[in-house]
């Protein structure tokens, strides 16, 4: 797969949350696409093993519990960065413009022609090209080779807006919730949809953290590690942190006039865990999502919120005021969001 | 490069879905030879042919098709003075076919659209896909990243609220085109050789509150649910604008569908669009539209229908009043258009008395 232009690898950090100690199979399969990039690997602070197994040949910095404790103190380390949320620490300490983040149980996918998909390059390409949230283009990404804006697309909207995030998809084990996967145990995603598109203004969507990239300079603080459900686990079926983060991110992006893309690239997600087992846990997530939807639908951030940090703080305030009484998880999320913004400012104050 | 499918040898569909509930509306000024290629998929269905241009010209319909044909004389005879709302010398006249149909569903296709091939080389039964799209719910209230969740092999993703998984009734299915893409004149002039060769294997719902450019080349809809809003405007002969008929209808239906809680889908099926119209001719037709759409889009984006508007006709009349109020200053054309919108509804209701349309409005 060739892209229109060469990407500048110096502008990208690849952030991997290590929920497994042995990263050799993961990194070896991604080697062709990770070579030349700087990697930030963040170890889940609750991982039992002392050392991570990382093969030679990568330009990598590893962060672990000790590093987190230096920055946030020991109690907050677990609260904020345990499990899948460990990768947010990587977002925090990165100094690059773009972040690409892939779960450690995913490998490169193959496109319909049999070629391995360079997910990193596709993500960066998505981020570098404008998004078009104000009007839907029926031929999807108008800036793509072989496509364009269709008849009837207003000319004043054809320059697009900056793209803040690129949400990729998954072949094999798609990001379905536990009840769905448990019901359809054999279902695997084999459909390769050859499109990138902008999610329209005001449209809400579940953003998955499994295969995601974003413009850190533009919206870094808006990716908040905030919502923890009770009994959150180390399989995606037992977490909602990314979905909450995504709802906040999309709302802030809409408010600030940026865009979110979805579609390519695909990654191949390996089998892991058991949906039926995950189902057995009382799944708080469903209830929290139901409450979140009307909240985000009616939410209006004040005009005065013009920076990302302002937006996160205002959002946290609204969460506390309108959802806090519904569930303690929301109050905790609101607190975490405020803390996150402060953390972001202090860690990144030297620019 | 992409080619149309060769449908020779494909048997006529033995189990055509909704055979007696769907009409195929085709506007034409030349001939209907393209229907030869479509036999396996379209022959079982009833056609409504709207003949534009010279009414004395005889349009030959390929053998085996069951059809009714209307030329300009018929339109004038049936509608009398109300015929003024139906465009002349523009494919916008097709909406007359929607009005006279007595069926629940409409599929409309242009006479230069042939059968496409999917990536496996198989001929695409576009009508069957449209029907599937219409018969299965839409999800305008929350975007599903795996596109149509009801499709075989797909589902709602993690985080998709369970309360929204039933979806809403689908009113419109908007298909796409391989080969000649639906570009406007300026883009055609800049990229005369560009062909759409990318088969995007997805159907998706256009989110509530989002407008889109609706192309009438390959379109299907539930006539009971949204028919009266599918007016294709005043275009062509004697009008200052052309090639905005389907766009106008698309903006209207989307606002109304959003208001009534109905869904609009886009994506599959593809047809193979064979003919590139002359970009210089197109530019002359579209020219005003290119400027006007800058005002029209914000108008539709901000259009708010009242709670009391609960049927499509009521919504449409309200919209026509807003057009008169807010767009007449843009050009006197919109004043005429607003009147034509009302005439259209009056004509629609005359030809489709309310008793027969009890299911109109919310499904």
Automatic annotation (TrEMBL), chain A:
GO terms for cellular component: cytosol; Golgi apparatus; plasmodesma. It catalyses: UDP-beta-L-arabinofuranose = UDP-beta-L-arabinopyranose. GO terms for biological process: cell wall organization; plant-type cell wall organization or biogenesis; UDP-L-arabinose metabolic process. Glycans are attached at residue 151. Keywords: Cell wall biogenesis/degradation, Glycoprotein, Golgi apparatus. The keyword Kinase does not apply. It comes from the Eukaryota. It holds the Pfam family RGP. The record marks 151, 158 as: Required for activity. The keyword Glycoprotein applies. It is found in: Cytoplasm, Cytosol; Golgi apparatus. It is an enzyme of class 5 (isomerase). One of its GO terms (molecular function) is UDP-arabinopyranose mutase activity. Its EC number is 5.4.99.30. Belongs to the RGP family. PANTHER family: UDP-ARABINOPYRANOSE MUTASE 5-RELATED, UDP-ARABINOSE MUTASE. Probable UDP-L-arabinose mutase involved in the biosynthesis of cell wall non-cellulosic polysaccharides. This is UDP-arabinopyranose mutase.
TrEMBL record, chain B:
It catalyses: UDP-beta-L-arabinofuranose = UDP-beta-L-arabinopyranose. One of its GO terms (molecular function) is UDP-arabinopyranose mutase activity. The record marks 158, 165 as: Required for activity. It is found in: Cytoplasm, Cytosol; Golgi apparatus. GO terms for biological process: cell wall organization; plant-type cell wall organization or biogenesis; UDP-L-arabinose metabolic process. InterPro entries: Nucleotide-diphossugar_trans (IPR029044), RGP (IPR004901), RGP_fam (IPR037595). The keyword Ribosomal protein does not apply. Keywords: Cell wall biogenesis/degradation, Glycoprotein, Golgi apparatus, Isomerase. Its EC number is 5.4.99.30. It comes from the Eukaryota. Glycans are attached at residue 158. Pfam families: RGP (PF03214). One of its GO terms (cellular component) is cytosol. Probable UDP-L-arabinose mutase involved in the biosynthesis of cell wall non-cellulosic polysaccharides. Belongs to the RGP family. This is UDP-arabinopyranose mutase. It comes from Raphanus sativus (Radish). The lineage of its organism: Eukaryota, Viridiplantae, Streptophyta, Embryophyta, Tracheophyta.
């Amino acid at each position: 797969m060739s892209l229109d232009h060469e990407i500048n690898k110096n502008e990208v950090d690849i952030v991997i949350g290590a929920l497994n100690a042995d990263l050799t199979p993961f990194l070896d399969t991604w080697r062709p696409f990770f070579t030349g990039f700087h990697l930030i690997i963040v170890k889940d602070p609750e991982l039992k093993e002392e050392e991570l197994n990382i093969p030679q040949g990568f330009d990598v910095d590893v962060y672990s519990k000790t590093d987190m404790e230096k920055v946030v103190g020991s109690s907050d380390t677990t609260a904020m960065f345990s499990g899948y949320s460990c990768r947010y620490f990587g977002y925090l300490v990165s100094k690059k413009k773009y972040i690409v983040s892939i779960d450690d149980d995913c490998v490169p996918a193959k496109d319909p022609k049999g070629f391995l998909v360079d997910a990193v390059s596709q993500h960066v390409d998505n981020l570098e090209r404008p998004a078009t949230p104000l009007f839907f283009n029926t031929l999807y990404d108008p800036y793509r080779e072989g496509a364009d804006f269709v008849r009837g697309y207003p000319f004043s909207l054809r320059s697009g807006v900056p793209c803040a995030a690129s949400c990729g998809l998954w072949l094999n084990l798609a990001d379905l919730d536990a009840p769905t996967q448990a019901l359809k145990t054999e279902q695997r995603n084999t459909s390769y949809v050859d499109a990138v598109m902008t999610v329209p203004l005001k449209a809400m969507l579940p953003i998955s953290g499994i295969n995601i990239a974003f413009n850190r300079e533009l919206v870094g603080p808006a990716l908040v590690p905030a919502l923890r459900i009770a009994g959150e686990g180390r399989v995606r079926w037992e977490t909602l942190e990314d979905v909450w983060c995504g709802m906040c991110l999309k709302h802030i992006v809409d408010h600030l006039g940026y865009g979110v893309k979805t579609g390519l690239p695909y990654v191949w997600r390996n089998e892991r865990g058991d949906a039926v087992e995950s189902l057995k846990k009382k799944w708080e997530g469903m209830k929290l999502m139901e409450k979140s939807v009307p909240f985000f639908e009616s939410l209006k951030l004040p005009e005065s919120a013009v920076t990302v940090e302002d937006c996160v703080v205002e959002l946290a305030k609204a969460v506390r005021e309108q959802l806090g009484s519904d569930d303690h998880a929301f109050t905790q999320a609101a607190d975490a969001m405020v803390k996150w913004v402060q953390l972001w400012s202090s860690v990144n104050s030297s620019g | 490069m992409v080619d149309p499918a060769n449908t020779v040898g494909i048997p006529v569909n033995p189990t055509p879905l909704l055979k007696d509930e769907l009409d195929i509306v085709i506007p034409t000024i030349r001939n209907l030879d393209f229907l030869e290629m479509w036999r396996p998929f379209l022959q079982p269905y009833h056609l409504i042919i709207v003949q534009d241009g010279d009414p004395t010209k005889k349009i030959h319909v390929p053998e085996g098709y069951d059809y009714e044909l209307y030329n300009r004389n018929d339109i004038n005879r049936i509608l009398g003075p109300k015929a003024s709302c139906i465009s002349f010398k523009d494919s916008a006249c097709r909406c007359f076919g929607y009005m006279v149909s007595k069926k629940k569903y409409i599929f409309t296709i242009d006479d230069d659209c042939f059968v496409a091939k999917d990536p496996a080389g198989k001929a695409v039964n576009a009508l069957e896909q449209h029907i599937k799209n219409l018969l299965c719910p839409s999800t305008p209230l929350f975007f599903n990243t795996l596109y149509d969740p009801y499709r075989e092999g797909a589902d709602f993703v993690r985080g998709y609220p369970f309360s929204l998984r039933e979806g809403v009734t689908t009113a419109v299915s908007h298909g796409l085109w391989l080969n000649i893409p639906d570009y406007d004149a300026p883009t055609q002039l800049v990229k005369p050789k560009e062909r759409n060769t990318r088969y995007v294997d997805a159907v998706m719902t256009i989110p509530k509150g989002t407008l889109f450019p609706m192309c009438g080349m390959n379109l299907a809809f539930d006539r009971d649910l949204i028919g009266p809003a599918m007016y294709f405007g005043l275009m062509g002969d004697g009008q200052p604008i052309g090639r905005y008929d389907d766009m106008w209808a698309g903006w209207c239906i989307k606002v109304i569908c959003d208001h009534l809680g109905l869904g609009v889908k886009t994506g599959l099926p593809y047809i193979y669009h064979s003919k590139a119209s002359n970009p210089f001719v197109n530019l002359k037709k579209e020219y005003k539209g290119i400027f006007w759409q800058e005002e029209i889009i914000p108008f539709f984006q901000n259009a708010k229908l009242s709670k009391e508007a609960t049927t499509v006709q009521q919504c449409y009349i309200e919209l026509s009043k807003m057009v008169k109020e807010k767009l007449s200053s843009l050009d006197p054309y919109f004043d005429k258009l607003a009147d034509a919108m009302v005439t259209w509804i009056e004509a629609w209701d005359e030809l489709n008395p309310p008793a027969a349309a009890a299911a109109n409005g919310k499904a």
